[in-house]
Amino acid sequence: MTFLDKLRAAERQNGSLLCVGLDPEPARFPAGLKGDSSKIYEFCARIVDATADLAIAFKPQIAYFASHRAEGQLEQLMEHLRRNVPHVPVILDAKRGDIGSTAEQYAREAFERYGADAVTLSPFMGFDSVEPYLRHDGKGAFLLCRTSNPGGDDLQGQRLAGIDGEPYLYEHVARLAQGPWNLNGQLGLVVGATYPAEIERVRALAPTVPLLIPGVGAQGGDAVATVRAGWRVDAPIVVNSSRAICYASDKDDFAAAARAVALHTRNALEAAKN
Q: Which uninterrupted H or E stretch holds 94?
C-alpha cells in the first residue's frame, strides 16, 4: 500500500480530513506531567489514543522531541502508532532539505529509524535534495509550497522571471510536484490554511497531489474555506491542528478535552465538503 492509498483508506475509515499534530511542550503539560520532559511519550500517546478514530493522519514535529533529547520517546511513540493505529498514516514533520548522501541519511532517519509514512521537505535546494526520499517505496514527501507563516511571502511570493507566465515561486513548486518531480506519485504539498486563495490556486496547478494544510485552530485558519479551496473527491487534503487539540485543557481531563476539540474540528471539515 502506498502512502496515498493509506491516506485515502484512513479518510474513508475515519470519515476525516483532520490531521492531529503532536507538538509536545512540557511547560504546557497538565498537572502531574507539567514541566517533565520524560513524560513526552505518555502525553502524546494519550492524545493519540483519544483521537485515533477521528484522524486521517498524525504529525509529530521532530523539533519538539529533539530539543528535549527525547528522540527515544519519539521512536516509542512511532511504535505505539504502528501497533495501535496502523491504518492511520504518520507524517514526520522535519522540513529537511539537503543534497546527496546527507539527504539519503535524512531519508533513512524518517523512514527506517522512525518508520514514518511520509515526511515534510524543503524543496529550495532542488530535485536532488528530494529524490533520495522517493527511493523508499510506498513512502510520501510533502514539499513546502505556500506556508502559513507571514514570512512565507519573502520567497514564496516572488515572481520567477524567465519562466513562462512569470509564476510565483510557490506556483512553480506546485507545478513541479504535480509533474516532473513526482516520479512515483509520492509527492504532496504543504499549503497554509491562512491563505485559502493560494490553496485554491495550488489545487488548480496540482489537481491530484495530496495537500498538507497547517494553520487551522491556534493559527486562525478557517476550516470551511480550507476544505472548499482544496478538497476534491480524487485529491485528499490533510488539515492539521496541533496546539488547539493538544492543549485543549491543562487539567487531568486533557485527553478527553483533546478528543472533544478533534471531534468538533473533524465534523466541521466533513460538513464543509457538502
A: strand 91-96
DSSP 20-52: EEE---GGGSPTTTTT-GGGHHHHHHHHHHHHT
Domain with 155, as residue range(s), is 3-271
* Whether the predicted model's global pTM rises above the 0.85 cut: yes
Q: What are phi and psi of 129, to 5 degrees?
A: -90, -10
Exactly one of 95, 139, 251, 273 is catalytic; name it.
Answer: 95
Query: In this predicted structure, what is the pLDDT of residue 222?
Result: 79
pLDDT tens per residue across span 132-161:
999 999 999 999 999 988 898 899 999 998
CA 223 – CA 229 distance, rounded (Å) = 10
Domain total in the chain? 1
Helices (H), the chain: 3-14, 40-51, 62-66, 71-84, 100-108, 131-134, 153-156, 169-178, 196-205, 223-230, 243-246, 254-271
Grid cell locating 158: 516572488
Cα(46)–Cα(259) distance, rounded to whole angstroms?
A: 10
* pLDDT given for residue 218 in this prediction: 52
Of 78, 70, 73, 144, nearest to 117 (Cα)?
78
Is 95 tagged catalytic?
yes
Phi-psi group of 267: left, alpha or beta (phi > 0 → left; psi -120 to 50 → alpha; rest → beta): alpha
CATH number for the domain harbouring residue 232: 3.20.20.70
Identify any residues that bridge with 113 across adjacent strands, giving them in sequence order. Answer: none
